[in-house]
């Protein structure tokens, strides 16, 4: 029959693929002989030669079920996989056989007039190029051989599936295209990535990065298959539905696997798979569905019956042209900014980078890359060109490291196309090539031809310089002539799009005084404006530093900054810059701005030359450099002490050895010199002149020094510590950041600290105190409930006649008045409030002085404190006067119907999406403990700290230790007095669970239950619940840093984990408002969300409106939170594990805002 082309069918109707090949074979219980011998057992692809009847029966079973497309049994039929069975030479033969069998069976079924398609299955193999397992060229050539066999055997399309590595996909696509060119036949290419349960591809790629990189390679279909069931794919499919310009496919496993009777078993039923695929087609507009591991002919029969005849929902995707690292995408158009292309990893522009490259110091090269990311670069320009060096060798070394260890996309910058390609062979993400031009024309073999060919073959964007055979275009018309010519060639000959092109309008130095160059700045700006207008979708960039070439460094910084601002007004999208050298105009004096603008626009007049004026302003001014104190006449004692204060570890060991050489005993270095430095650190912190991150750097330096000196100290068997402290977080509390900070400060101020962990009962604390003969016991806790446990612990110490133990108490819920008034009345011994670690240290120092001198102060730790604010008298309220419902909460508000009832698990949320919802004030000030400098505005303060946030997010992407996951759902509910009933279903006949909430005893008498229709009303209402987590890896990573004495890194990582969890809660609340249909009532700004500028409210347990932490377990049970690894029980103090986890009930009632209520 004259078969309808596959892509034409995809545009017309839903196409259903077959199910699992491996599962089908597994159920047949085949033996070694079926595969051709013992050495080939398990090589399923060999069945195409040894048991073609098995393969035919599989295809027939799925075609009997009604599928439209069958996959060839060729998943691993290429040489790199077949080598493991010592049969690489059979690759072509196996693929011809696999495609021929499928073609033959499919043709038989086409007798009914409906086309059946043969998809040539191409798997990922066992070696991933991004991990260095195999070279790109070797892999590409193996795929080409496989593709030729599939073409010759009669395949209708290539299915590059179960892909875990973007670079592997590029190799497969190139191999397929080379094969099609050799065979003279074009087949569609369908690419399917595999997203792990982590929410990323195996090498760490987010779905946004996968789409950005692969869309540029121009496959015909993009999709997802394998690794998980459809439930775990939903967030990725939502992303593709909203952004993909090409058709989408989804072929999930039949759920996640389990082992039953020694065999792999998949639990998703045919009915459940069918329900998901109906959702995919009807709600997400996906037109190609099917199955992967565990899906049987019965699964596919039910899917076919359900979706054949259903019209996919029309999609209106939002296309965001982007580039990508291996991990995440970066849009070429930045909101409220320009795309910053870091210029320091350039051997021509950076002496430091060039020298590191020449001495093959790749670690330093990588460090320079990460520094640029920290400073704010979105993309890195990488240029290794240097006279006398083989650029392909250097690019191979640099790109192989940057591609996986730098978290931002790369600009591969070279005058030689082969050097660019050396970089492309390592970059799985989407890179930018710098650059193409018409200097040697447009014929085959020209630079333009070679660069555009690379861009097409590897899916790269291209920086296009406005240069033609006459030279660099100077005036506007010349620039535009070259730009239009390049765009026409790119789109018509090479299949590139305007959005693949980034035009560099080429600015010339305007500060040399050369009359010919005076108006070049204007020409550049006008060209930028016209490119944006006349070549729709194209982008613009500038090598910014050219404009100020020849001027002093200070002058260049200001002129570059002003020219960049002007270019942005004309539409500039990106610039190659040193990000930290760009000044916001608000920090440049108005006079300097005006003179620079006059120079840019050549506003000379009689008696005034802006260039002369600019040179006069900066006469004698150089770049500001940090002034270093001359320490040449310092003693070694002064130098070592200052090293502690500065947190300076570089050269520390040499100075310690010099101290020993000068006859200072190691113990004296510690006690007399280093501890004195730590004492001053404490004083600086207490006076507000040193912030906690720098305190921790001092502590790390102290720890390093002590660790080095210990080898020289006499082992007496007795502790040389000033005193001993036992530290613990109380039973039922899992928070340990405050306790660990006390550990750090006290340990590095000469104390022996026994930090025995979290959730510790009083008896375990007592036993440890007795074991080590401790001088004091420290208890920590974050929760309000923990303050009660501390009180009970003090009473137990009294009961056991152990009140001689001084006790230090700390935690966010404690107050000084509670400890020094209430708890001192209870405890027979000394008890102290530790506002921070240094106050605890001060208490210990005083206690040890009392012990050492014998001069006691009986009031110390016992004298009752005074209340700064008198406690309000408790007023008894007659319960009969409290209404059953707050009169201020309306009962006629609109009730929004949720999009579904039940629960869903969501994984694979992009870190950048979450990071948009970070509360920077909470992160920078509360978690990281930074403070504005004197006279620094809040905006400038955040600008100063934000690079650290960028660095942390970058490290998290490459390290994979932030793993966002959500479980959420909507439930039918009704209020019953102060209780909220959650029903099993919308018939509202059977209770699933109920929550009890306290009511205010004074007006307005609020209670969370009031925000829902009462059970007596008979009206329907609904509530949403969610639990969000950043996963356990971030806690594990933080614990490693603490154990390695990397104190500041520990605090920074812990802080980012906590605030990313809060940001995820904020983000998911926004998603719920969107799904539920009232997000249009949000306030105008993101900052407003932190002040509840949206309809309704979100309440987390442990806060005054819903204080009962045990309800955390109820929510976890309701949402089946174990599916995302959440644990909560009495053992965890009813707090979630992992620590960076939070839950909430979401109310849609407009009066649902924060309030305080207690039973």
Q: Helical stretch count? A: 39
Main beta sheet: strand number and arrangement?
8 strands, parallel
Strand order of the largest sheet: 1-10-7-6-5-4-3-2
Report strand %: 5-15%
Q: Return the structural class.
A: alpha/beta
Estimated helix fraction: 40-55%
Shape verdict = globular
Averaged pLDDT: 92
Q: How many β-strands, per DSSP?
A: 34
Describe the protein's topology.
Blueprint: H1 6-12, E1 15-16, H2 21-26, H3 32-35, H4 47-50, H5 52-64, E2 69-71, H6 79-82, H7 91-109, E3 117-122, H8 136-153, E4 157-163, H9 166-183, E5 189-193, H10 207-215, E6 221-225, H11 230-243, E7 248-251, E8 257-260, E9 263-266, H12 270-284, E10 288-289, H13 297-307, E11 322-324, E12 329-331, E13 339-342, H14 351-358, H15 362-375, E14 379-383, H16 391-405, E15 410-413, H17 417-424, E16 432-436, H18 447-458, E17 461-465, E18 467-468, E19 471-472, H19 476-493, E20 501-504, H20 520-534, E21 539-541, H21 553-569, E22 574-577, H22 590-600, H23 610-617, H24 636-646, H25 652-661, H26 666-686, H27 692-709, E23 724-729, H28 737-747, E24 752-755, H29 762-772, E25 776-780, H30 784-799, E26 807-810, H31 816-826, E27 831-833, H32 837-853, E28 902-907, H33 911-915, H34 920-927, H35 938-959, E29 965-976, E30 979-983, E31 991-996, E32 1021-1029, H36 1033-1043, H37 1047-1076, H38 1086-1089, E33 1097-1099, H39 1111-1119, E34 1141-1147
Parallel strand pairs: 1-10, 2-3, 3-4, 4-5, 5-6, 6-7, 7-10, 13-14, 13-22, 14-15, 15-16, 16-17, 17-20, 20-21, 23-24, 23-25, 25-26, 26-27
Antiparallel strand pairs: 8-9, 11-12, 18-19, 28-29, 29-30, 29-32, 30-31, 32-34, 33-34
Helix pairs in contact: 5-7, 5-13, 7-8, 8-9, 11-12, 12-13, 15-16, 15-35, 16-17, 17-18, 19-20, 21-22, 22-23, 24-25, 24-26, 24-27, 26-27, 27-37, 28-32, 36-37
């Amino acid at each position: 029959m004259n078969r309808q082309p596959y892509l034409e069918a995809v545009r017309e109707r839903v196409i259903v693929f077959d199910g699992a090949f491996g599962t089908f074979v597994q159920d047949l219980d085949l033996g070694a002989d079926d595969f051709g011998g013992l050495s080939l057992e398990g090589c399923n692809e060999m069945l195409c030669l040894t048991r073609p009847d098995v393969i035919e029966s599989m295809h027939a079973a799925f075609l009997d079920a009604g599928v439209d497309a069958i996959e060839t049994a060729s998943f691993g039929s290429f040489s790199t996989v077949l080598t493991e069975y010592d049969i690489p030479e059979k690759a072509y033969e196996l693929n011809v056989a696999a495609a021929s069998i499928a073609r033959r069976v499919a043709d038989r079924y086409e007798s009914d007039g409906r086309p059946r398609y043969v998809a040539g299955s191409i798997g990922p193999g066992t070696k991933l190029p991004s991990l260095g397992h195999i070279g790109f060229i070797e892999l590409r050539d193996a795929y080409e051989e496989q593709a030729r066999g599939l073409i010759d055997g009669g395949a209708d399309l290539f299915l590059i599936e179960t892909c875990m590595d973007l670079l592997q996909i590029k190799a497969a696509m190139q191999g397929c295209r080379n094969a099609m060119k050799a065979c003279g036949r074009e087949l569609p290419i369908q690419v399917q990535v595999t997203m792990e349960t982590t929410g990323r591809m195996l090498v760490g790629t987010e779905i946004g990065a996968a789409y950005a990189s692969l869309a540029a390679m121009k496959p015909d279909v993009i999709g997802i298959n394998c690794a998980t069931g459809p439930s775990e794919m939903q967030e990725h499919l939502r992303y593709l539905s909203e952004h993909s310009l090409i058709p989408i496919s989804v072929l999930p496993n039949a759920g996640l696997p389990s082992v039953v009777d020694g065999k792999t078993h998949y639990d998703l039923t045919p009915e459940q798979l069918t329900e998901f695929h109906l959702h995919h087609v009807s709600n997400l507009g996906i037109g190609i569905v099917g199955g992967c591991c565990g899906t049987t002919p019965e699964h596919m029969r039910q899917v076919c019956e359900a979706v054949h005849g259903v019209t996919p929902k029309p999609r209106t995707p939002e296309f965001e042209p982007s580039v990508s690292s291996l991990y995440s995408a970066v849009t070429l158009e930045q909101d409220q900014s320009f795309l910053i292309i870091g210029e320091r990893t350039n051997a021509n522009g950076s002496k430091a980078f060039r020298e590191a490259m020449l001495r093959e110091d790749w670690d330093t090269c990588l460090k320079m890359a990460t520094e640029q990311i920290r400073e704010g670069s979105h993309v890195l320009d990488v240029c290794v060109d240097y006279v006398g060096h083989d650029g392909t060798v250097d690019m191979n070394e640099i790109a192989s490291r940057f591609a996986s260890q730098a978290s931002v996309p790369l600009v591969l910058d070279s005058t030689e196309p082969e050097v660019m390609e050396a970089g492309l062979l390592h970059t799985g993400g989407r890179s930018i090539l710098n650059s193409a031009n018409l200097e040697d024309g447009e014929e085959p073999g020209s630079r333009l031809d070679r660069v555009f060919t690379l861009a097409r073959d590897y899916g790269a964007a291209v920086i296009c310089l406005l240069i033609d055979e006459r030279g660099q275009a100077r005036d506007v018309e010349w620039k535009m002539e070259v730009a239009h010519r390049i765009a026409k060639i790119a789109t018509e000959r090479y299949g590139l799009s305007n959005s693949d092109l980034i035009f560099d309008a080429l600015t010339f130095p305007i500060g040399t005084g050369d009359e010919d160059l005076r108006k070049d700045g204007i020409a550049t700006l006008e060209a930028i404006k016209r490119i944006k207008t006349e070549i729709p979708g194209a982008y613009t960039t500038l090598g910014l530093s050219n404009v100020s070439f020849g001027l002093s460094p200070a002058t260049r910084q200001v002129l570059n900054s002003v020219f960049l601002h002007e270019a942005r007004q004309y539409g500039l999208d990106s610039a190659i810059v040193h990000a930290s050298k760009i000044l916001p105009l608000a920090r440049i004096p108005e006079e300097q701005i005006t003179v620079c603008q006059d120079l840019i626009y050549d506003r000379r007049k009689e008696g005034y030359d802006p260039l002369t004026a600019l040179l006069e302003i900066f006469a004698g001014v150089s770049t500001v450099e940090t002034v270093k104190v001359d320490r040449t006449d310092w003693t070694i004692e002064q130098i070592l002490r200052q090293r502690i204060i500065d947190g300076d570890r570089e050269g520390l060991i040499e100075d310690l050895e010099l101290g020993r050489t000068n006859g200072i005993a190691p113990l004296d270095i510690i006690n007399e010199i280093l501890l004195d430095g730590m004492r001053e650190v404490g004083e600086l912190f207490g006076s507000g002149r040193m912030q906690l991150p720098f305190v921790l750097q001092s502590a790390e330096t102290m720890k390093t020094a002590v660790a080095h000196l210990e080898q020289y100290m006499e082992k007496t068997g007795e502790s040389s510590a000033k005193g001993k402290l036992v530290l613990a977080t109380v039973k039922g509390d899992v928070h340990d950041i405050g306790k660990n900070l006390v550990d750090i400060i006290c340990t590095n101020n000469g104390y022996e600290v026994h930090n025995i962990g979290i959730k510790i009962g009083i008896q375990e604390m007592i036993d440890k105190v007795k074991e080590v003969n401790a001088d004091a016991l420290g208890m920590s806790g974050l929760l309000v409930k923990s303050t009660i446990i501390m009180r009970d612990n003090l009473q137990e110490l009294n009961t056991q006649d152990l009140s001689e133990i001084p006790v230090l108490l700390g935690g966010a819920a404690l107050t000084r008045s509670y400890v020094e008034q209430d708890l001192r009345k209870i405890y027979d011994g000394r008890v102290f409030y530790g506002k921070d670690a240094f106050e605890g240290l001060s208490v210990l120092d005083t206690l040890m002085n009392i012990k050492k001198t014998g001069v006691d102060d009986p009031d110390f730790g016992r004298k009752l404190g005074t209340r700064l604010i008198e406690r309000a008298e408790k007023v008894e309220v007659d319960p009969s006067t409290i209404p059953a419902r707050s009169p201020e909460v309306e009962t006629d508000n609109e009730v929004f119907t949720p999009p579904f009832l039940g629960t869903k698990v969501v994984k694979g949320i992009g870190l950048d999406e979450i990071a948009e919802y970070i509360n920077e004030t909470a992160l920078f000030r509360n978690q990281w403990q930074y403070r504005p400098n004197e006279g620094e505005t809040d905006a400038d303060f955040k600008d100063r700290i934000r690079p650290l946030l960028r660095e942390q997010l970058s490290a998290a992407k490459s390290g994979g230790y932030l793993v966002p996951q959500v479980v959420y759902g909507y439930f039918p509910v009704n209020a019953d007095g102060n209780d909220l009933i959650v029903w099993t279903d919308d018939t509202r006949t059977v209770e699933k669970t109920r929550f009890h909430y306290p009511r205010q005893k004074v007006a307005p008498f609020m209670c969370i239950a009031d925000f829902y229709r009462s059970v007596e009303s008979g009206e329907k209402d609904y509530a949403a619940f969610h639990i969000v987590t950043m996963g356990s890896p971030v806690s594990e990573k933080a614990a490693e840093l603490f154990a390695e004495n990397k104190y500041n890194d520990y605090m920074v990582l812990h802080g980012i984990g906590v605030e990313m969890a809060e940001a995820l809660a904020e983000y998911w609340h926004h998603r719920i408002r969107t799904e539920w249909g009232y997000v249009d009532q949000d306030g105008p700004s993101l900052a407003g969300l932190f002040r509840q500028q949206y309809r309704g409210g979100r309440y987390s347990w442990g806060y005054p409106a819903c204080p009962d932490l045990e309800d955390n377990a109820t929510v976890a049970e309701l949402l089946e939170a174990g599916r995302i690894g959440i644990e909560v029980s009495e053992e965890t103090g009813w707090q979630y594990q992992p620590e960076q986890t939070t839950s909430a009930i979401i109310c849609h009632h407009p009066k649902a805002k924060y309030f305080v209520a207690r039973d």
